Amino acid sequence: LSRIGDELYLEPTESGLSLRAVNSSRSGFASFLFAPLFFQLYEPGSAGPETELFRCKVHMKSFLGIFRSLPSLEKSVGKCLILLKPRASRLVLQLHCKYGVTKTHNLAFQECERLQAVFDTQSCASRLCAPARVLAEAVVHFPPTLAEVTLGTGPGGKISLRNYVEDEAEPSKTMVTELWLAEDEFQSVAVAPGSHITFCLKEFRGLLSFAEASNLPLTIHFDEPGRPVIFTLDDTVLEVHLVLATLSDLQSNSQSPSTNGVSHLPAPPDDFADDLESYMVAMETSEGGSERPPSPTFPLRTPRPAESKAEEEEEEGAVPGTPPHKKFRSLFFGSVMTPGRPGLATTQEVLAEDSEGE
Amino acid sequence: MPFSAQPPASGERYALSASLDNARHLSSLLRAVHFQDHATCLATASGLRVTVEDAKCIQANAFIQAEIFQEFSVQEESVMFRISLSVLLDCLTIFGTSSLPGTSTALRMCYQGYGYPLMLFLEEGGVVTVCKINTQEPDELLDFDFCSTKVVNKIILQSEGLREAFAELDMTSEVLQITMSPDKPYFRLSTFGNAGSAHLDYPRDSDLMEAFHCNQTQTNRYKISLLKPSTKALALSCKVSIRTDAQGFLSLQYMIRNEDGQICFVEYYCCPDENITEAEL
User: Fold this and answer.
1) Taking burial as the number of CB atoms within 10 A of a residue's CB, which of A117, A129, A253, B143 is the most buried?
2) How far apart are CA A38 and CA A233, in angstroms?
């Protein structure tokens, strides 16, 4: 979560404790939902008809500082107690360590509005599921500083990963890395052919490390370029979602095959190793001529009380025909998808304000 | 300035002369008190005491008793001088700081007296290095007037339990607050930093607690920047005794076992922070 944002949102719910983060440009959101069974004891407090369950946010660094050294934590800490004390304005974290030693941290918190991204995995055209290890081994080939990566589907069910190169970059000075994964490396592949998406690798890496460490398979839900990509991890007591905005593909309507270097490369034939040289030549000749559109933001809807019920479940976020969600779609696409013209000015307009309370 | 590379014959009269087969027995202890550039050395028949002070609030002493040395002789009742501790440590570790098993640096130390430099002869694997370090007039040392009869609260803990706590102290807090009490929380270390407050509680019946003699509830605050260097001594030690007197002066005594199993002591004395207020919850 710290790879996404600087603040940690804690939201106790009836279905568990949700820890969330959002990045500063509102183009990345992650949530970890720990079911009550994950805990030895889970008391979210009581919510009346007028009051909601108390939630707050704390500085990520302050929170992480308590769990600084994982190896020593594993050796010495028996259990951890988390108490939210609204009246004292303190989030209390108490670690019960060996030898009877108790470490109590009283963190200052800020009240906050509900942090919720609107997305719907059901409405995504493509879905991939792979063991985290497969993706981790693929991603290791890209430099740690790489900002964005493009995931694409090719013929024969192959999946490609390529580093995203800005179109202004000089072809002779950039290195392009592309790798292909066969369908059998994945646990399941249900993708729309010829689709691709470009998203922020740095934010994804954080989730990938977590998935690897917990040995959980990672599912990637994606759709058209510009629509968010959703990464999910599922376990009996944990549900993880990472939602990232993707670059929209402005030239998808244009005729010129070479204006967007990403979508028109031929997939390598099956005896790809032998044809490596001819493939490399093909890559070098494609050029990017379009202006890179700004990374689209997607709005975070803060539900008004009347609508809160409809948006409670993350999975059922997009019900066709419901006014709030149609609005979401047009807000999301309206600012960037103007056919034939490059993206809007780089000033990022905020598409949805936080409601008052901050 | 030419000088002989041979160590002086033992017939010559030196105010202080000492030999040590393994210089690490000295250097590791000196590192535990190395938070200022200069130190005052006092040599008596019982051994060597190296004192470092800061801000007129904190004093650290490293004791290396005569028995640790292979040879230790002091001609007068006591010999005292001020020296650069940084330079002394650099010389003692001139052959490197990594401790390969079986190799050690042998040391011979000679001091002719007032105004003379401290001479060090260091040998490892047949290579000899001679060092001459200038000495200065010793400073007046602080006297905390801390004696066992004035101790109000005393506990002895196994260092293992405190090491991590000290290494991870919230340095955004200006003070380290120490509470010692016959009642709960018994022994508590607290910090008040930017993120909030943190308390570390040690119960009196903990396995780490070797001795618990608290008669009165006392809460005192000490500048954390002054106490932080004591982490080095804590890391080397196996046990630590924590004592406070009626004025809130703090005494930390660390028992250190060297490579040969010999015992040495390092102690830290600290004044309480002047802006004392009631403990924050």
Assistant:
1) A117
2) 15
Measured CA to CA, the distance from residue A37 to residue A313 in angstroms comes to 19
Closest to B27 measured CA to CA, from B228, B253, B236, B270: B236
A59 touches chain B (CB under 8 A): yes
Query: A173 at the B interface (CB within 8 A)?
Result: no
pTM for the complete prediction? 0.71
Q: Which two tokens stand for residue B207?
A: 């396995």
Segment 107-166 of chain A within 8 Å of chain B by CB: 107-108
List the domains of chain B with CATH numbers: 14-136 (3.70.10.10), 151-270 (3.70.10.10)
Q: CA-nearest residue of chain B to A91?
A: B196
Q: Which CATH architecture has domain A126-220?
A: Box (3.70)
Q: Do domains A7-111 and A126-220 have the same CATH topology?
A: yes
Distances in Å between the Cα of B206 and the Cα atoms of A77, B159, B180, B209, B231 are 15, 13, 15, 5, 21
CB contact under 8 A, A99 and B205: no
Q: How far is residue B105's CA from residue B22's CA, in Å, rounded to a whole number?
A: 5
Location of structure tokens 């559109």? A293
pLDDT in tens, A24-75: 888 889 999 999 998 888 887 766 565 667 788 889 988 888 887 777 777 8
A99–B207 CB contact, under 8 Å: yes
Whether the CB-CB separation of A254 and A340 falls below 8 Å is answered with yes
Long-range contacts, A307-314 (Cβ 8 Å, 24+):
A311/A116, A311/A118, A314/A31, A314/A116, A314/A119, A314/A241
Architecture of domain A7-111: Box (3.70)
ipTM given for this complex: 0.80
Domain parsing of chain A, residue ranges = 7-111, 126-220
- Segment A242-291, tens digit of pLDDT: 999 888 875 443 333 333 333 333 444 444 333 344 434 333 333 333 33
Whole-number Å distance between alpha carbons of B155 and B181: 10
